[in-house]
Amino acid sequence: MKILEVAGLNVTFPTRRGMIRASQNVGFSVDRGEICVLVGETGSGKSVIGQAILHLLPKTAVVSGSIRYGGQEILSMSEAAYAHLRGREIALIPQNPSGSLDPLMRCGRQIAEVLECREVPRERLSGETGRILSYLNFPDPELTAASYPHELSGGMRQRLTTGIALASEPRLLVADEPTKGLDYAARNASIAMFRTLKEKRHDSILMITHDLELARLIGDTVGVLYSGELVEFGPTAEVFEEPGHPYTRGLIAALPKNGMKPMPGICPGLSRLPKGCYFRDRCPHPCTEGEGFHPAMLDVSGRWVRCSHFSA
Ligand SMILES: Nc1ncnc2c1ncn2[C@@H]1O[C@H](COP(=O)(O)OP(=O)(O)OP(=O)(O)O)[C@@H](O)[C@H]1O
Ligand code: NI
């Protein structure tokens, strides 16, 4: 059962430097209880997809395509109608936790406040707050509940914002770079938390990250973005074991554990994309088709790859 279905999503920003095509014909879906991870280098259009799902794109953005949540079209929904979904049904775990935490309120209270908004009865408040805290991988949840945000580490603050998002019982969580700027230990704590959410609560999560290893560790499915479009999408284990697109192969080879072999070249600018294959200039095996023909996403038994040479 699909909770999220994105189809033919285009997001363009008209600017003085031309049209920036931040998202092009993006399509993928997320099943209930599944973690889907979108990866790609900076500027590849990851956050724009999250913003489109959350109705957070700036008014200047030109948007087309379809985003369905639980079968209901939400991309064209009015702001008034969408306001009923935001936070309650679809919640964002923001990249910067400081902006969403109240510095003057104890951490446990910040979760309890959201529960109060949902009219959770008084006698169940502390139990419910404790239950949410237990998912967040804090060494001492009670101590954390009694602390103020400035007394927590950056990683703990990030996990607390996830707890605040969970308190409204959303059915879909969108996490934009939840591990950005965290050190090794904090990143591992965050990964453990997302694993718990998946295993114990069966949360449906769309995660946006540049961290390929994070995708491998927690994603059920992974989508690889390049210059505003998906070049590969499929079950995580399959994509990592047998990447179908040369860009995915390059990303995997560039991981530290694989010898950190950098990919030569840079991606083309989003305001002057070439006519054919966007990856052609960097491709180790550039084909003649890719010169003038833009490859479509090919579906080979549930794996989607945007390369004329892909076959399973
Ligand atoms: N409001 C905006 N106006 C103009 N261009 C924008 C706007 N928001 C995003 N863009 C452009 O759209 C492209 C995609 O941006 P996006 O933030 O989705 O990238 P990203 O993959 O999330 O990168 P990062 O890893 O750095 O967060 C970028 O080229 C960016 O400059
Ligand atoms: Ni981003």
UniProtKB/TrEMBL annotation:
<dbReference type="InterPro" id="IPR003593">
    <property type="entry name" value="AAA+_ATPase"/>
</dbReference>
<dbReference type="GO" id="GO:0015413">
    <property type="term" value="F:ABC-type nickel transporter activity"/>
</dbReference>
<dbReference type="Pfam" id="PF08352">
    <property type="entry name" value="oligo_HPY"/>
</dbReference>
<dbReference type="InterPro" id="IPR027417">
    <property type="entry name" value="P-loop_NTPase"/>
</dbReference>
<keyword id="KW-0406">Ion transport</keyword>
<dbReference type="InterPro" id="IPR050388">
    <property type="entry name" value="ABC_Ni/Peptide_Import"/>
</dbReference>
<keyword id="KW-0813">Transport</keyword>
<protein>
    <recommendedName>
        <fullName>Nickel import system ATP-binding protein NikD</fullName>
        <ecNumber>7.2.2.11</ecNumber>
    </recommendedName>
</protein>
<dbReference type="InterPro" id="IPR013563">
    <property type="entry name" value="Oligopep_ABC_C"/>
</dbReference>
<dbReference type="GO" id="GO:0005886">
    <property type="term" value="C:plasma membrane"/>
</dbReference>
<dbReference type="Pfam" id="PF00005">
    <property type="entry name" value="ABC_tran"/>
</dbReference>
<keyword id="KW-0067">ATP-binding</keyword>
<keyword id="KW-1278">Translocase</keyword>
<feature type="domain" description="ABC transporter">
    <location>
        <begin position="6"/>
        <end position="252"/>
    </location>
</feature>
<keyword id="KW-0547">Nucleotide-binding</keyword>
<keyword id="KW-1003">Cell membrane</keyword>
<dbReference type="InterPro" id="IPR003439">
    <property type="entry name" value="ABC_transporter-like_ATP-bd"/>
</dbReference>
<dbReference type="GO" id="GO:0005524">
    <property type="term" value="F:ATP binding"/>
</dbReference>
<comment type="subunit">
    <text>The complex is composed of two ATP-binding proteins (NikD and NikE), two transmembrane proteins (NikB and NikC) and a solute-binding protein (NikA).</text>
</comment>
<keyword id="KW-0472">Membrane</keyword>
